[in-house]
Each structure stands twice: as C-alpha cells, then as structure tokens.
Design goal:
The protein has helices at 55-67, 103-110, 115-127, 148-158, 184-190, 268-272, 277-289, 309-312, and strands at 12-13, 19-20, 22-26, 72-76, 94-97, 133-138, 161-165, 195-200, 210-216, 228-233, 246-249, 254-256, 265-266. The chain is an alpha/beta fold. The longest helix is centred in the N-terminal third of the chain and has 13 residues, at 55-67.
C-alpha cells in the first residue's frame, strides 16, 4: 500500500489505484417512509440533533473533499428532501424512489399511503427544471417485480430515467437473502418487450448503473420522440467495485469508503475539536488509502454492516 505522502497531490488514491472523485453526503438518517426492504415498521432509533453535522460543518467538510480532488457531490439520506434543498441553491438533479405505481402495493411496501404525494413530487422536480429526474425501484420477488415493464413505460412517457436496483444486504432487519433477490438478469428478462442497447457505466465507466438506450417498446409512439434511458444497478450480481470512485459521509460525520464497510473514520470529532484543513485532509487520505477491494458479498465471511441504508446514505 502506498504511503499517504506518496499519493499524488489533489487526488484521493487507494491501494488499488482507484481515484475517489464522487462524494455522497447524507443530510439525515430519517425517512418519512418505512419500506419493508429497508427498515422495520416502527422505524429506527434516529440520531440526536447534537450528533448531526450542522450546515456549516457540512460545507466545511465538503470543501475539504473538494480540495483533495472530489468533483461531484450528491446529497442523500434517509430522506434528504426532509432537509431544505432548493433549485436556487444549485441543486441540478434528483433521484426519487418509486417501487410501484399501484397505490395499495405502495402502502404495503412503504407502510404509508403516500404514492400520490411521491408522484406529485417527481412531477414538481421535473417542472422546476431538474434534469435528469431518475426514478429508482427495488424489485421484490412476489411483490412488485412484475411491474417492471409498466414502471419503465411510465418513466419513458414522462421523460424520467428509470433505474432498477438489486436488493442489497443493507436492511435494518438483516433479513436479506440472495435467493429472494431479483437479479439483473431477471430484471432484463422482464423487459423483453423493449429493445435495449447497452451503453456502459457512464462516460468514464465508474457509474454504478449499467445504462441502456431504450430504442423501441410498447406504446413507443408516446415516448419515442424523446430518447429514453434505463439504468440497472446490480451491486450484488454484477459488482463494479474495481471502478468505484465513491466515498460516503454519514449525517453524523463518519467517512465510509464503501457502502458495505465495517469501519468508519470520524471526521465530526476532529472538526469540532478544532482540526484545521490539513489535519482533516490527512484523515481523509488515510481512510481512502485503506479502502477495501470490494464489498465481499459472495465471500464466506461476509458480514452485513451494522448501519442500514438509511443511516449510511445511498
């Protein structure tokens, strides 16, 4: 492993040569929904306000990461739109989760009767000029998997970008099993009425979603004038760890170098104790240098992280 001092200045490089340029900052661990694949019906013990980073602390840490070469910052949660977030402040796009278009199924999956609110919110985001509006759906066997074609068709008609996501072992209940997961291959088989052209993992190959251009399909006359895209995020069956360029900062100021990491680096404590930018940068570089090779889900000794997805930030 290279020493921290050997790393190229302005770059966050790990021992496998990957350069971290994308930072996900979680604004809150709270969420207004209780999705069955994420948390129990009663919710979770939320972080206390004193544990959360303040706005000024978020800005300070974001600046430290930018000075080290981070070029993209995404705000996540929990549900980050519980936090004041405005287009006027520079937000340029959003991802919204919609696992079903059926109101009763939404109530069953999210344990809240909020589908009309979510649909209205997505439409408002598009009307405000946010682009692209990406819609995420976790397909669940025996539940919403059969809706994949309808979800894609709906997104195409509205000009949204649909993204189907494999269920990952990040649920608070630790009930995830690989056999119950709908795989990427199964997702694409459900969409066999559509003509899809693979276009890779983003411009530099590091995006988590494998993207497809939608060339034709049911009711194409309603959306063909606007080129449509589909994303499939297959973290489990088609891992993209070797090209990962992402870091995560939790709402309580812990740096995670992998979504499935078992360790974190505390940045909130040193920041509140008066650490200067040089010290914060040193801590960040050390953490990145020790980034694991991959998530290890297929390894016999894989252990699911203690924090669930809502507490980590997506």
């Amino acid at each position: 492993m290279p020493s921290v001092t050997d790393m190229p200045r302005g770059e966050l490089v790990d021992s496998f040569g990957r350069v971290a340029t994308d930072l996900r900052i979680s604004l809150t661990d709270k969420c207004s929904l209780r999705c069955t694949y994420c948390m129990p019906a009663e919710g979770l013990p939320w972080l206390r306000k004193s544990e959360l980073l303040t706005d000024d602390e978020i800005v300070r840490l974001a600046g430290a990461f930018v000075s080290l070469g981070v070029t993209s910052i995404r705000l996540t949660g929990g549900e980050p739109l519980l936090h004041p977030t405005l287009v006027q402040a520079g937000l340029n796009r959003v991802n919204v989760s919609i696992d079903t278009l059926d109101r009763e199924r939404f109530r069953e999956l999210a344990r809240r009767d909020r589908l009309p609110d979510v649909l209205a919110g997505v439409a408002a985001a598009a009307a405000a000029g946010l682009h692209p509006v990406k819609v995420n759906a976790v397909l669940m066997r025996g539940s919403n998997a059969g809706e994949a074609p309808d979800l894609l068709g709906w997104a195409l008609r509205h000009g949204y970008e649909m993204r189907f996501i494999e269920h990952m072992p990040l649920d608070a209940q630790h009930a995830w099993t690989r056999d119950a997961m709908v795989t990427a291959d199964e997702m694409l088989a459900l969409l066999d009425d559509y003509v899809l052209r693979p276009i890779g993992h983003g411009a530099d190959g590091s995006a988590p979603a494998e993207e497809f251009e939608v060339l034709d399909g049911p009711s194409a006359a309603e959306w063909a004038a606007r080129p449509g895209r589909l994303g499939v995020i297959a973290s489990v069956t088609r891992p993209f760890c070797r090209d990962c360029d992402r870091l995560r900062l939790t709402a309580d100021g812990q740096l995670r170098t992998c979504l499935f990491a078992r360790t974190e680096t505390d940045l909130r404590g040193p920041l509140r104790d008066g650490a200067d930018d040089g010290e914060l940068g040193r801590l960040i570089r050390i953490a990145v240098a020790g980034k694991q090779a991959g998530h290890g889900i297929d390894a016999a000794d894989f252990v699911q992280p203690d924090r669930p997805m809502s507490a980590i930030g997506g």
